[in-house]
Design brief:
By secondary structure, the protein is an alpha+beta fold. The chain has a single domain, classed as RutC-like (60s Ribosomal Protein L30, Chain: A), CATH 3.30.1330. The chain has three helices and seven strands, in the order H-E-E-E-E-H-E-H-E-E. The protein has a five-stranded mixed sheet with strand order 1-2-7-5-6. Helix 2 packs across helix 3. The longest helix is centred in the middle third of the chain and has 23 residues. The radius of gyration is 15 Å and the shape is globular.
């Protein structure tokens, strides 16, 4: 089954790949690897904002909100893969995800938030979607995003 059919079967539609907001490119394909710049969580064209665990703030986010934001980042990563490679079936393996979670200093479940992205990658790519990962807390992200994720992807062929 093609990756795009798998996405549809799971009820997901790829967003338009986000344009860079500064001096960088969305992805670099070099030596059989695709390096994807950090992607923000867009849902219905709007970036998901707010810190996970900041319940004193009306814009604060729950752990579940963070997982949904991480899944939105994963969809944007897949959209960038398609833009860079032309065909998602060229993805050999998701090698690594770097997950940055805007969260309060007392919130320590960044790995659970990151599962929103990891679970989607495995659901879409199967065994090839299992990856190494880091999940870290940061005080703030660009555009006040809740999560940002970058990726390293192994690519089939040239």
């Amino acid at each position: 089954m093609s990756i795009e059919l798998k996405l549809a079967e799971l009820g997901h539609k790829l967003p338009e790949p986000a344009a860079p907001i500064a001096a960088y490119v969305p992805a670099v394909h070099q030596g059989g690897m695709l390096y994807i710049s950090g992607q923000l969580p867009f849902i219905n064209g709007q970036v998901v904002t707010g810190k996970v665990g900041d319940f004193a703030n009306p814009l604060g986010r729950t752990m579940e909100d963070g997982k949904i934001a991480a899944q939105a980042c994963a969809l944007m990563l897949i959209a960038q893969m398609k833009a860079a490679l032309g065909d998602l079936n060229r993805v050999e393996r998701i090698v690594k995800l770097g997950v940055f979670v805007a969260s309060t200093s007392d919130f320590t479940n960044q790995p659970i938030v990151a599962n929103g992205a990891s679970d989607l990658m495995e659901a879409v790519f199967g065994e090839a979607g299992k990856h190494a990962r880091s999940a870290v807390s940061v005080p703030v992200l660009p555009l006040d995003a809740t999560v940002e994720i970058d990726a390293i992807v192994a690519v089939k062929g040239k």
